[in-house]
Each structure stands twice: as C-alpha cells, then as structure tokens.
Specification:
- The complex is a heterodimer of chains A (about 600) and B (about 240).
- In chain A, about 35% of the residues lie in helices and about 20% in strands.
- Chain A is an alpha/beta fold.
- In chain A, strands 1, 2, 6, 7, 8, 9, 16 and 17 form an eight-stranded mixed beta sheet that branches. Chain A has a four-stranded antiparallel beta sheet with strand order 11-14-13-12, with helices on one face. Chain A has a three-stranded antiparallel beta sheet with strand order 3-5-4.
- Chain B has about 240 residues and is α+β, with helices and mostly antiparallel strands.
- Chain B is built from eight helices and seven strands; from the N terminus they run ββαβββββααααααα.
- A five-stranded mixed beta sheet of chain B has the order 2-1-5-3-4, with helices on one face. A two-stranded antiparallel ribbon of chain B has the order 6-7.
C-alpha cells in the first residue's frame, strides 16, 4: 500500500519542546530556519514538572562560587562526570539564570529584590562542608516557570512549531544527517522534515520502571531512534532513583522539602540520615539517600514494616532540628504553603495527607537518566570512544550525556543542563547550518517507519502492549533498581529478551489513522524495551558500585578499572559495549563522604 | 470498588455521530484517579479510546475533560471522591471539553484556544537595557506577589471551556488568555501593559466576562481566575495597574 508522504524543508529541526529544545530553538532561530517538533503541546513537556530550583552560584544570600558548584557536581557524580564540561555547566549557570530572569522568569525574591535561593541536596560551602543556598527557585514550580518563559519567548520570536507530530526515525546516510520522519498524530499521515541538522531533545525514559516520577510520554524515543541508527548510548547503567517519590505513585516531592528543613524519619521516629551522612544528613546526594531508605526498609524500619519511610516537614519538626543545629531561623505553616504549595497540593490530593500536620509517606522513584546520547561541549553527537563527531546531529537535555552528571546527578542540575547546553547546541547548530549544504533525501526515506507502523497496525498476534509494559516495568523495578547484582541483572536480561520477542506479536485494537494513541503507545513500548535492555547490559558489565549503580556483589568503587564511561551499541538484536576515558581536571577521585 | 463509566465517544473514521460507550471496571482503588480508570479501559477493554495525558499529576494540563458535568483534570480527580459515602459503586460520566471542536473521543481541537492565548502578547516585554552589573532586574517580594497566582496557569483550557460566555461566542478570548495577560500586566518589570490592556479592552476582551465564577471553580491550579479578570477590568477602567 502506498502512503502519501508530506515533505517540509528547514535548515534544522529540533525534536522535543522541553527546556533544552526551546532554549536551543530561541538561539538557533536567530540566524536559521528552524522547526520545533513535539509529540505534545510544548507546555505539556516534563520540564514543567521540575520543582525545587535551578542551581547557580549567584551568592545572593551567602558566599558562593561557581567552582564550589563544580566540585559538588563532580563529587555528586562519584567522579564519573567529565570535568571540562562540568566547569562550563557551573560557570555558565550564573549568566544563564540571569538571562532567564531577563526573559521575564518570575523567580521568588529576597528582601533586597534579588533572585531567592534555597538549599538543595549535595550543594555545599566547600570550606565548611555545610549546605549552601544555591537553588534559584520560583516556589516549587521552577520547571514550570522555565518552560512557560521559554515558550513565551518562542512565541514572541515567532518560532515555528509542529505540535503533536511524533518523530519516529532519523534519516542518516553514512555519516550525514538528512532529517527526521514523523507521524502527524491528528491525521496519521507521514511527514518528512528534510534538514541540514537535527537536534534531539526528547527527555528521559523513566517509564521503563514501575514507580516513576516521569510522565507517561517519557518513553525515550530520541535515544532509541539514535541507538537504532548506529549511535551509541553512554552510561546507561546510571539511572537516578529520587529518594522522595510519593509512596506507590512515584510523584516527585522535591528535595526542596528537605532544603527548607524537612527530614526523613523511620518507623522508630529516628532521623536516620544522621547515621548515613553525618555532615549534611538529609541533604546528601540522591543516590546516597535512596540507598539509605532502601536499607532502612530492608532492616524492617519502614513505617509499619512497609516499604516506605516518612518525610516530615511539619513546622514543629523542622524547628526542633533547626534549634538543635543552632540556627536562628524558624518556620511556620504559612511558610510551607508559600514555599511548597504544589507539594502540599499533591499530598492533599493524592494521599489526603496535609504536610503541615502529618508526615508524608515516601519511597525512591525512578527519576532521571544520567546517561544518554553522547555529545561534546557544543551538543554535537559523538559516535565512538574516540569522540568522532557526527556532523549535523545534536542532542541536549536529559536525552543527552555530555557528561556533566556522571554516575549521579546533583539536584537542580537537570535544569542547568537544559538551559546551558540547550543554548550551546542551538548556537552551534545555527552556525553549522550557515556553512552546511542541504543534502538530498534518499529514496523511500520513510519506508522503515511506514513498514513498522503497518506491521503493528496489521498484527494479529493477540498480545497487548499493556501486558508487556507491565511485565517490563516490574522486572526493571525488581532487578535493575536501587541495588542490583549479577543474578538480578541476568534475570532482567532474560525477561526482557522474552518480552522483546513477544513484542513482535503485539496486537492493537485501533486500526484507524486519527489520533491513534493505541498504535503510538505500542510503538513507544518498543523504544522502552530497547532502552531497558541497553540499561541492563551496561549494568551487568560494570563490576563496581558508583553513584546510582549500586551492586551488592561489587560494593566498592573501583577507579583503577572502572573510571570510564560505558558506550552501548546496538548490533542487530544484541548490544555491544565499549568504553571511553573520563576527562579529569582539578579534582582527583577520592572517597565520597557526606 | 466498581466504576460504571459512561464515555462520550466520537470517531469520524468509524461513525459520523458521537455515541455513548459504557464500561464497567472492577477492583478500582478509591485512591485511583479518573485517568487511571480511563487507562484501565484503554489498556484492557478498548484500545481505541483516545485521550491526551502526560504527567498524570496535574501539572502538564493535557487531560482536562468534563467529569460528571464539571471540568477537571482526569489525573487530579480521585474515584473515591466521586462516590457516595460508604458506597462500593460509582457512576462516572466523561465528556470532552465544551466549546472546542471534538476531534476524537475526549480529544478536542486546542488550536482556537491557543490562538486566543497568543493574541494578548503572552510574553515578557522590556527592551530597556539590563542592569549595568549584568545581574537580575530587581523586584520586591511585594511586587512579585501581585501576579503570583496567575503564574500557576498550565493552559489546560478547563476555565475557558467552562465559561458560558465562551460557549455563546467562541470569539471571546476567554479566561485563560486573560490570566496569562494578567501575569504580565501586573509584573513590575514588564513594559507592555498598555498594549495588552488595549487588546483586552476590545469587544471580545474582558467585558465579555459576566462574573459567573465557573472558571474559578474549574481551575485545577486553584487560580482565582475571576479575581484576576476583575483586576484587569479595574486596570482598564482606572488606567492604574
């Protein structure tokens, strides 16, 4: 059956309209013709769910330096981050946050009218080791404000959007990029965007796990598409479990709750982080806190013997610990309502728990991909361990791996990454388009997408995507979670292989064209399975514990053998691994103590 | 508990006219959201049921719809709260938003909504040079508080499509557009309030609001929409912001 294929021509296309995509669009559109393509309306992007803040050493409330931010980032990463790009991240964070303010972003204010800052996990005064106020915030909806502000500026600058177009393939011929293949969700028709350059900014893939803070739409499409087109994925074994997801639901409760003074408490009423991180306690890095919660639950100290602990931000609790720490500051219920209104709304809506009066039940929730499409400091995608650049292909934001997060991302640095590297990639891509030629489209550029979609639509194997997805999410949660071993990872590998086979027999109910979300969900599931497999293979091969990759059978960090990045390639139906060195700098790896 | 769902279905590829689909879902946790139940239907009964959704916790604004006659985000309405006290069964009726063309099932054409939104300059304007120290423009916490409420808007359209004035005439810009403009009109750093007020003072601007308060009840972000509209009206009437 022949399908009508529409073709559009642009200098560049940006896939994904979250923080990274929109920041890149603002810069790239100044000097080139750009299309922003998103499977959602841009304001639905998951950047909007980010809560607590964006880190930048403005020093508005106390002494701070971008070099301190850089050290905290490297330490948080368990020394796996590349230190040259961490310097860029933390230095440019300052000017970029100011730029966001100049774009109108309504940050909270200090009494002097400056951008307000709060404490956050792993951000410290490097001299005292104590938490420092570095997270610039707008209540607990900082990501929402960033997303809205960038979208507003895109409207002002007449950026061209293709909303609800689902990107399904990258057109790569040898080492050149020719555009992307999409489906217009409203009509089911195929649209090719023919371009000199493509920037992938599609976000993460938390939906591989059962309990996640991620939106349903976070299915890692951009990463999976690149993997299929011969591009490796870097450091896939490092996936962050945020310590404080709402029990059972996974909805995020920002680290800002602890930044404002909230504490984690076990069934015995003990503030257990004092044992795991004596200096900064509840504000240790996320991997450290998630492991602590897991171990408390394992030891039978979960609340009522269940697999959750309490996050307590009641003013009396917070004030008790502030007093104990010798601080003058005291808070009241009105302060919680002002600084954490969305958190209060979430727990009231979904749990019937009022955080001003009761503690909140929390458990670790799959949150953020440290790994992803490898790039250089301009967002250019690299193809191998020698950092060979694939001209015309860019990636930024969570889907990319620069790598500034290494083995564990510091809170607030996701938003910094989006705007700093979104801007860099957008600028570089616009310059690239001035020089580059528009190379011709190959014949049948859309054929692999058309074939795959027809296959799914026509299949009658009787297997439901829901069943496969649920099995995948369970197996990833059970076996590729906060702690893993060779045994659990091998089990996950086997289950995933089986699910990948079943996926071939998937059958959908909706055979139509318009808004066929049944079909799109089935296609997205294919991406998730491949990313789950890449994660599992990368984790199985790394014989050490580092950051978010905690192995019960290799409990120590092993810098001698494993201070290197994993690259996972797809070879037919299997994955092949390679490695590349970490770029060190001012900071020598040393044991990580909080 | 048991949920008996009645969903307004429409798919022009299958049938010219809309119809009611009825689905019974058992063993529902009262703490599950309406979106969870819609997913149960889609994933286990009829995959062709179509709706938009993304974040599933009330911040992305994808899944606004009419639930038992009231606009809400499906992911923020818990099934147990729709049931009568002590009842093990609940009837839920779901329809697409009113006032926007239905595309398929619970999916409406959002373009008229976003076109209104774009019409009132929903972006920060200040062409004066940034401070010499290359730092932020200063704003007092009191000035910042003046527009805090309207910064919460997620453009879900629940307010606009609950408004009888909008139902009566779709050329009315609607509450969401005014909320978004309010966010800039009352921002002490912005310099384009006069242009925005001029746009909103026109025939299909704020004066179409009849102070019915449906928008305020519908807002899943608890924005005091009617108050925001009144503040814009007052600014128009007095010339003072």
């Amino acid at each position: 059956m022949s399908e009508k294929i529409h073709t559009h021509i642009f200098d560049s296309v940006i896939v994904g309209a979250g923080g990274a995509g929109l920041m890149a669009a603002l810069y790239a559109s100044r000097s080139s013709n750009v299309a922003v393509i998103s499977k959602l309306y841009p304001t639905r992007s998951h950047t909007g769910a980010a809560q607590g803040g964006i880190g930048a050493a403005l020093g508005n409330l106390e002494e701070d330096h971008w070099e301190w931010h850089a050290y905290d980032t490297v330490k948080g990463s368990d020394f796996l981050a590349d230190q040259d790009v961490v310097d860029i991240l933390c230095r440019e964070a300052v000017e970029t946050v100011i730029e966001l303010e100049h774009m109108g972003l309504p940050f909270d204010r200090t009494p002097e009218g400056k951008i307000s800052q709060r404490r956050f996990g792993g951000h410290t005064n490097n001299e005292t080791g104590q938490p420092v106020m570095r997270a610039c915030h707008a209540a607990d909806r900082t990501g929402h404000m960033i997303l809205q502000t960038l979208y507003q500026q895109c409207i002002k600058n007449q950026v061209q959007f293709y909303d609800e177009y689902h990107v399904m393939d990258l057109i790569r011929i040898d080492d050149t990029i020719r555009g992307v293949v999409t489906v217009n969700i409203a009509t089911g028709e195929y649209h090719i965007f023919h371009s000199k350059a493509v920037l992938i900014a599609t976000g993460g893939w938390g939906r591989c796990w059962e309990v996640t803070s991620n939106a349903h739409s976070l299915t890692g499409d951009g990463a999976a598409i690149c993997l299929r087109r011969g591009i490796p994925l870097e450091d896939m074994e490092f996936f962050q479990f945020h310590p404080t997801g709402i029990f059972r639901l996974g909805i995020l409760l920002t680290e800002g709750v602890r930044g404002e003074g909230g504490v984690l408490v076990n069934d015995q009423g003990e503030r257990f982080m004092e044992r795991y991180a004596p200096t900064i306690k509840d504000l240790a890095s996320r991997d450290v806190v998630s492991r602590a919660i897991y171990l408390e639950v394992q030891a039978g100290r979960g609340i009522g013997g269940n697999n959750y602990v309490h996050l307590d931000v009641r003013p009396e609790t917070v004030n008790h610990y502030l007093k104990e720490a010798g601080e003058d500051r005291r808070i009241d219920a009105a302060y919680i309502e002002e600084k954490l209104p969305d958190i209060a709304d979430f727990t009231r809506t979904y749990l019937g728990v009022d955080p001003v009066r009761e503690p909140m039940p929390v458990q670790p929730t799959a949150h953020y991909a440290m790994g992803g499409i490898p790039t250089d400091l301009h967002g250019r995608v690299v193809l191998d361990g020698e950092n060979t650049i694939l001209d015309g292909l860019y990636a930024a934001g969570e889907v990319a791996c620069v790598s500034v997060h290494g083995a564990n991302r510091l809170g607030t640095n996701s938003l910094v990454d989006l705007v700093v590297f979104g801007r860099r990639a957008g600028l570089h891509m616009a310059d690239y388009c001035l020089e580059a030629d528009l190379l011709p489209l190959p014949d049948n550029a859309a054929s692999s997408v058309v074939n795959e979609i027809s296959r799914i639509r026509g299949n009658s194997g009787g297997v439901k995507s829901h069943q496969i997805r649920t099995d995948m999410q369970r197996t990833m949660t059970d076996n590729v979670g906060v702690f893993r071993t060779a045994e659990t990872l091998a089990k996950a590998r086997e289950v995933l292989e089986n699910l990948a086979e079943q996926y071939e027999s998937i059958e959908i109910d909706d055979k139509g064209k318009r808004f066929n979300t049944d079909l799109l969900e089935a296609w997205e599931l294919g991406c998730l399975i491949e990313l789950a497999q890449a994660t599992t293979e990368s984790a199985l091969a790394r014989f050490e514990s580092r950051g978010a990759h905690a192995r019960d059978d290799f409990t120590d960090r092993d810098d001698e053998n494993w201070l290197k990045h994993t690259l996972c390639f797809k070879d037919g139906d299997s994955n092949r691994l390679d490695y590349k060195p970490v770029t060190l700098g001012r900071y020598e790896p040393k044991p990580r103590v909080y | 508990m048991r949920v008996e769902l009645r969903i307004r279905r429409y798919n022009p590829e299958v049938k010219k006219k809309p119809w009611w689909g009825e689905y019974d879902v058992d063993d529902v946790n009262p703490n599950d959201s309406v979106l969870d139940v819609l997913h149960r239907v889609k994933w286990t009964i009829d995959g062709s049921l179509s709706m938009r959704r993304s974040c599933a916790h009330g911040v992305c604004g994808s899944d606004a719809m009419r639930i038992n006659g009231t606009n809400a985000l499906a992911c923020k309405v818990l099934v147990g709260r729709l049931a009568k006290e002590g009842s093990e069964k609940v009837n839920i009726q779901i329809e697409p938003l009113l006032g926007l063309p239905v595309e398929k099932d619970l999916i409406v054409d959002m373009e008229p909504f976003f076109a209104h939104y774009r019409s009132a300059m929903p972006f920060f304007v200040n062409e004066t040079p940034a401070p010499d120290d290359k730092r932020e423009r200063r704003q007092t916490p009191e000035d910042r508080a003046k527009f805090d409420d309207t910064t919460k808007c997620i453009l879900c359209a629940a307010c606009t499509t609950s408004c009888p004035s909008f139902w009566a005439n779709g050329r009315y810009v609607g509450p969401a557009t005014i909320v978004q403009a309010h966010r800039f009109i009352f921002d002490s750093r912005d310099r384009a309030y006069q242009e925005r007020l001029e746009i909103l003072g026109q025939r299909f601007g704020v004066w179409r609001c009849r102070t019915i308060f449906n928008c305020t009840s519908a807002c899943p972000r608890d924005i005091e929409v009617t108050r925001a509209i009144a503040e814009v009206k007052k600014a128009l009437a007095t010339g003072i912001v």
